[in-house]
Fold each of these.
Amino acid sequence: MAILDRILAPGSGFQKNFFFLAKRFVAGETVDSAIAAVRELNAAGMTATLDYLGEDVLERDAAIKTRDAYIAVLDRIRESGAQSNVSIKMTAMGLLIDDGFALDNLQRILHHAQRNADPFVRIDMEGSAVTQVTIDLFERAYANDKNVGIVLQAYLKRTPRDVTRMIELGARVRLCKGAYNEPTDIAIKDMPAIRKQYFELAKQLLERGNYPAMATHDRELIDEIRAYVRERGIAPDRFEFQMLYGVRPQLQREIVAEGYRMRIYVPYGTHWAGYFYRRVMERRENAIFALTSIWSK
Ligand SMILES: Cc1cc2nc3c(=O)[nH]c(=O)nc-3n(C[C@H](O)[C@H](O)[C@H](O)COP(=O)(O)OP(=O)(O)OC[C@H]3O[C@@H](n4cnc5c(N)ncnc54)[C@H](O)[C@@H]3O)c2cc1C
């Protein structure tokens, strides 16, 4: 793991020379490239949420730089008229340094975002070591600023309670399966059981939640959700589907053509290697895709 960490570190030779491997999943290293990607998605009838890549920040300066990068990209979204909001990670805001400091960084972003046509800011959910503190900070921020929402992971055994709580609060939830390797005492490991819990929670959010986001590329789940909203008469503007940039683009377009809302999570920035690594570990075909792009770049 240490070797891998060194290879994937920002500024390493790998990072400098191998961006072409990641370009299917990462919208470039600059704000300009990110805005250009959002514009293309907008033209295809989709909205976006921009993620300035980086996580597990251990120095105050780095967290402040990340916060300022978000403030700059919010300005660019506003000036360009691109239809996008932003997604942030609390460890990138300095959660591992001091949670009060991370909350202050988050609140500055929330206040700045309030000038934008879409002022919404999503807090991504990270590994279980920070689940509770992320939810606590979300609730503290949400008490004052309602333009913030959270992500809940269907693979965690605690999540039904968290869904109930967020419905009570009227908070916006993005529901995903969960991307981290969690221990069996706190997480469901079996895919059919994760899918079952996802669908149960999705139904609750669709019936009683505040504009939930169904984040998945899983066609079986998407079909179940589509059938459920049709059967229950839930209008397509009461929720949105979300997918990752570069993942199942054909399915993204198919869902838009059916009249559903689709928001694409668009990561950008120089710290792309960790994100790229998670996508590759998720799906073997992504490694094959990346390797074949060596010959087609
Ligand atoms: C918009 C969005 C935001 C997310 N935010 C978070 C978050 O904050 N915290 C968190 O823990 N996780 C997050 N995730 C990741 C999520 O938890 C899953 O790890 C990821 O979406 C894979 O699960 P799945 O439900 O999409 O489908 P899976 O069951 O993994 O896959 C279903 C099918 O989709 C396709 N597919 C899925 N993933 C890929 C891929 N990477 N490349 C190519 N094809 C693929 C494959 O054909 C696969 O058979 C997010 C996902 C999305 C879409």
Amino acid sequence: MLTKDLAICIRAVDYSETSQVVTFFTRDTGKIGAIAKGSKRPKSPFGGPIEMLSHGKIVFSDSSREKLATLTEFEPACGAPGAAGLQNDLFVLNCCLFAAELTNHLTDDYDPHPQLFDSFVQFIQDVQQDSDRTRILALTILFQLALLKEVGFQPILDHCANCKTPHAAHGVQSQTYFSSLANGLVCRDCEPNFPDKIRLSRNAAACLISLKQIPDATEKTLGEVEKVLVRHFTHLLGRPLKMAKHILKG
Ligand SMILES: [Zn+2]
């Protein structure tokens, strides 16, 4: 049976001299692994090798979900450059590759998340139109938070994840911590229970308590938030993230 869908390439590896195995995050089918036979031949049926981050319409057959699907058509969307087209801004490319890595690890095969797919496409479009590192980092952080929410790992940010006290009740002077074990922000009274907690600066805590502050935050604050998120994703996945070092400065 042939399935039509919209897809983003989130992983591509050479399978043979002429073919690739590609992981697509599709809109309505979820993540799939597919073999793209002949994609690297001079007369590729897909107009060339399938590039990381390229997105568009695909047709594939998946007679058995146990095995790789077979890609039969790939038509990149207009103005969707893929990784090669993003290479003039390395930070944008790295942020998109990081988003792809996280999406690959946090979603399951054949488990669709159409809203996350739309956010991912929008994210790629937004960052490639921007050249401001701080704004690109803000968009990357918002995408990571959207991803966590969509896959059911939304961290608890509006009140203490342990005692449920709203952060505001502690006053502006209070200390706020992030703990992966608590899955969110914890207050000063609760932090001794969570050995993995990290103390946040007031600005970083404010961004996480109220996400609408993220677009206006400084690069320093966003760097701190990103560090917390990388640590959290590493905890959730139980493995280091390949792209993290390219996102975190110094
Ligand atoms: Zn508490």
